[in-house]
Amino acid sequence: MRMILASNNAHKAEELRAILSVLGVETLTMRESGFSSDPEENGTTFAENAYIKAKSLFDLAGCAVIADDSGLAVDALGGAPGVYSARYAGEDADDAKNNEKLLRELENIADPRRTAAFVSSICCILPDGRVLRAEGRCPGIILRRAAGDGGFGYDPLFYVPEYGKTFAEMSSAEKNSVSHRARALREFSRIFTEEMRKEK
Q1: For the domain 2-198, what is the CATH code?
Q2: What is the mean pLDDT of the segment spanning 124-147?
Q3: Rounded CA Rg of the chain
Q4: What is the pLDDT of residue 152?
Q5: Looking at 38, 59, 68, 69, which residue is catalytic?
Q6: Ramachandran area for residue 125 (φ above 0: left; ψ -120 to 50: alpha; else beta)
Q7: pLDDT tens-digit profile of 39-91?
Q8: pLDDT tens for residues 144-166?
Q9: Of the N and C termini of the chain, which has fewer Cβ atoms inside 10 Å?
Q10: How far apart are CA 109 and CA 104, in angstroms?
Q11: Can you tell me whether residue 156 is helix, strand or coil?
Q12: Which residues make beta-bridge pairs with 4?
């Protein structure tokens, strides 16, 4: 089966290919497949936005598609920045500005209450219209100052007690084994395999 990823993000494509190739699925980015889709992501949850992206591309391509939406949910902020993770400090905000705003918002929050989770929601629409969903979460703590030079986004502030490091301090292999997207992809792999067995 061939599946189009509702993104041109090379990092996402690489992670998807690593998991789905084992299942006999070839993954293409939109650019590689010749399609372009940029729907308004106006959902209130990661799952809703993943579906919006997948459905928009499915309506154009008419073949199997897969999309994900992900971000940071901080407990003390009621789940914010959530679906606004990439533009938390404004539409033109970069990683530094988003991190600065997050630290300001949590300035008076005691360390034990600085819990958070990175969340990844995956939506796949198969050629016959079946919708498969999976979600992965990686719990952690928001530090008071950045640590590490790797990763991107909120990675330097997101500390994973299980590893004793922030995402930005981890090697790619470490992060890919514990990250929210890796967990979502493993769950999706299980669900997809079950669906394919039903067809046999």
Answers
A1: 3.90.950.10
A2: 96
A3: 17
A4: 87
A5: 69
A6: beta
A7: 888 999 999 999 999 999 999 999 999 999 999 999 999 999 999 999 999 98
A8: 999 999 888 999 999 999 899 99
A9: C
A10: 10
A11: helix
A12: 28, 65
73, 17 in Cβ contact below 8 A? Answer: no
Mean pLDDT of the chain: 92
- Per DSSP, which regions of the chain are E strands? 2-5, 26-29, 65-74, 115-125, 131-142, 158-160, 165-166
- The span from the CA of 112 to the CA of 36, in Å, is 44
Distance CA 2, CA 12 (A): 16
155 an active-site residue?
no
pLDDT band at 187 (very low <50, low <70, confident <90, very high): very high
Are residues 63 and 4 in contact, defined by beta-carbon separation less than 8 angstroms? Answer: yes
Q: Domain ranges in the chain?
A: 2-198
What confidence score (pLDDT) does residue 198 get?
81
Give per-residue burial for 104-127: e unless 16+ CB within 10 Å, then b: ebbeebeeeebebbbbbbbbbbbe
- Evaluate whether 135 touches 122 at the Cβ level (below 8 Å): yes
